């Protein structure tokens, strides 16, 4: 019966970011403005990784995952500002602030784990964070996938994009 139990399938969870973006576009927002927080987050993550001392696949994927989670936090902030410019302030803002904090905490935790030693505990925590992020809608699916995959990647230094750019110059 409709309205008694709310259920979401795995497919619903995977296409949710596309559906949310389509709602923003329907509201009249530019697709560029919707995805700028994620683009800025990926660029910042790449720069932080490139400037850092630990360069492994584990570090790269964990750092990018964390910055995608921060990108979700930035998107929620921009959407809140957009909404407040068109609607009156209400107590719902506090719920939005809690959501912003949730995504930011996932991002900071992922970045800190990716920049440290890649022991079994850190790998496990990164996989748990990736799973929580997937269920919480953080990181536009790519972030959680990167976080979970980082928990399986090797920690030895490999020829990764930051090293290839440095060797070329």
Q: Would you give an account of this structure?
A:
The protein is mainly α. 73% of the residues lie in helices and 0% in strands. It has seven helices and no strands. Helix 3 runs antiparallel to helix 6. The protein starts with 9 loop residues before the first helix and ends with a helix.
Give me a quick take on this structure:
The protein has 169 residues and is mostly helical. It is built from 7 helices and no strands. Helix 5 packs antiparallel against helix 6.
Set out the fold topology.
Layout: H1 10-26, H2 31-51, H3 57-84, H4 92-115, H5 120-136, H6 142-150, H7 161-168
Helix pairs in contact: 2-3, 3-4, 3-6, 4-5, 5-6
Secondary-structure-derived class: mainly alpha
- Helix-strand string: HHHHHHH
Report how far apart the termini are.
Answer: 64 Å
Mean of pLDDT? 86
Query: What is the C-alpha radius of gyration, as a whole number of Å?
Result: 18 Å
Number of distinct helices: 7
Quaternary status: single chain
- Major sheet description: none
Provide the β-strand percentage band: under 5%
Measured as a percent range, the helix fraction is over 70%
User: Any low-confidence stretches, pLDDT <50, length ≥5?
Assistant: none
> What's the count of strands?
0
Shape: globular
